[in-house]
Amino acid sequence: MLSEKAAVALEALKYRSDADWEVNILPFGSIYWSDEMPAIAEIAVLPDDTSTIFAMFGMRLTLWDGEALSARDQELWDAVQRRVPNWALFRRLSLSNEQRFAREKAEQQVEREFQFCRETPTRRRKAMFWAYLVCLAISSLSFLSMNVRRYSCSDCMIPVGRPFAYKITSGFATPAHWLWRGAIADLSLVFGVAAILCLVWQARSGRSA
Questions:
Q1: pTM assigned to the model
Q2: Which of 20, 29, 80, 199 has CA atoms 20 to 30 A from the CA of 140?
């Protein structure tokens, strides 16, 4: 479920009839409105918050299609709605013709991107592969540079890791232990940043060619 910080951030997002809609390619590949999505800094403290919020947008796509949610999804939907009943997302469970067209256009764009990846010739795929490796190295080095830090306290249980804590240092009677959700979130961020850098690289290369 949502943390208190995420709940406060979502409850503050009041419905505005004049809010603009925007296209989100990743992670849910559709449209959303500017009064529905909180700032990343407000929800990135806990990976569970981010995944729950993205799941809510994904479930709304199912409702837009006129389909019923699974029992598990319906339980999560109801729990979040009880927690943040004023979140603007709950005010847009159907689309106008114009909004439906914008959604279809966004989802077609996602399909074209995946189709491009499937149909790219072998030589270009290899170039993209090596470009991604370079971007992954840059992203990994940036992450490592953020996390090079020495701790002077040898008896303190200190969270280690930026932007997400992935480990707790040992204390007087407690051994060090891993925070697997934070570690997974950090890894996802490293690979995600690498993918974005690679896409930017490929876009610039395509224009220069």
A1: 0.53
A2: 29
